[in-house]
Amino acid sequence: MGLLSPIAALGRNVLSALAWVGRLSIFAAGTVRHIFTPPWYPREIWHALLTIGWLSLPVVGMTAIFTGAALALQIYDGSARFSAEAVVPQIVAIGMVRELGPVLGGLMVAARVASSVAAEIGTMKVTEQIDALVTLSTNPMKYLTAPRVLAATLSMPALVAVGDVIGIMGGYLVATQRLGFNAATYITNTVNILSFDDVFSGLVKGAVFGFLIALMGCYQGMQSGRGAQGVGKATKTAVVAASVLILASNYLLTEVFFSA
Amino acid sequence: MIEIQDIHKAFGPKEILRGVNLSIPKGESMVIIGGSGTGKSVTLKCILGLVHPDKGKILVDGKDVEKQDREEFLSRFGMLFQGGALFDSLHVWENVAFRLLRGKLKRPKKEAREIAIEKLRRVGLTPDVADQYPAELSGGMQKRVGLARAIAAEPEIIFFDEPTTGLDPIMSGVINDLIREIVVEMGATAMTITHDMTSVRAIADKVAMLHGGKIRWTGPVSELDTCGDPYVHQFVSGSAEGPIEAVR
Fold this sequence. Notes:
CATH architecture of the domain at 1-76 and 189-248 in chain B: 3-Layer(aba) Sandwich
Radius of gyration of chain A: 21 Å
Number of strands of chain B: 10
Oligomer: heterodimer
Shape of chain B: globular
CATH superfamily of the domain at 1-76 and 189-248 in chain B: P-loop containing nucleotide triphosphate hydrolases
CATH topology of the domain at 1-76 and 189-248 in chain B: Rossmann fold
Strand order of the largest sheet of chain B: 6-7-8-3-9-10
């Protein structure tokens, strides 16, 4: 018995993880169904677009500008070892648009949005507001989950696009002001290196990350346990799970777009 | 008429309801009493479909609640939650008119607001409260708003979950009187769960006592003090001595 107990514990954890994946998949499928079927709540969608998209702009912008700036310095320093300093604009542009823009933006939005959505819905559950919605003939999945997931899926690509531009701008500022690059050449090199696929892949990643962020916030909020501890745990789990899912799906999407 | 037939419900190994049977005739005000954790709220949530019973049947006007169209079924109900359960992000009037702003009972916004203000007035709140947020109100005012929301769509059946919990005795009296007046005025079937004996005497036509997952006693409120059931007697008198175990 003692010999088998680690295996039994492993089995329990695997089963528990599979059950979590199953529950989340059912929740995700239900959410997608509710996004495409009436009734819709335009006011809720608009409010979610504002809180998830618009109000995330400062944090995404700040992340992007410092990342772009640091990236330019790193690339310049690294490429100097084989006398290839001229590639700074190209690598900053590709790095920001393909990877750092969507991933870092996604992680920052996950920290901001998944936590607030999970805490808000978790508190609503604890204070019986979700039950109240049901008794008022309103489906909580339609009223709470669908608008948030739709808003995050739509607004994340826009945030990524803005982040890309600001990130490239950060690299441009460092390169032209600190590293002695010519401004016109820097912009020309940046524009010339970027292809449609680079930008498109980043925007698709943004949409997928937005979907995952809001989904995890809503799911953990709905699953929240009782009291402050329950809501706190739901909030923490939402951020951690959203972050891990962003990184995992980023790898998968990169395989899909660039493996050939 | 609401008929609860042999309802069982367990959460994990913990059996909460062990065969609850209860009838509430149309237009009657039934109050369920019982200690904390005896399953009063679970019973109520089973009727509304918020909790699914493991066994048993619940009939409303002879129809199984599980087999009815959910929206239509729920449109017949109003509920006052223990903590009010008001939506923080909405104005008071939007909370009250929630049901009138969407779904099958949807009305024009102006009309819904007018109805909300009328219902707020009915529960003793002035129209200026309508544009405030729930967080700006006191506990008693939030209860009143919850009550206004419960009656906004003029439901046939109203549930009250611990309507006086957390209120001072005067505000409790006001809420009790309001509930009684509204139920009589609307001719609604009412079901209240509470352990406040003042509420019981003010609101109830009939009383049922839930203990050990079953209905221990049921009868008219006038017989509450003379029914001879030791459990009811201990609960009503609030005595620590008796068949109901009191943890000290």
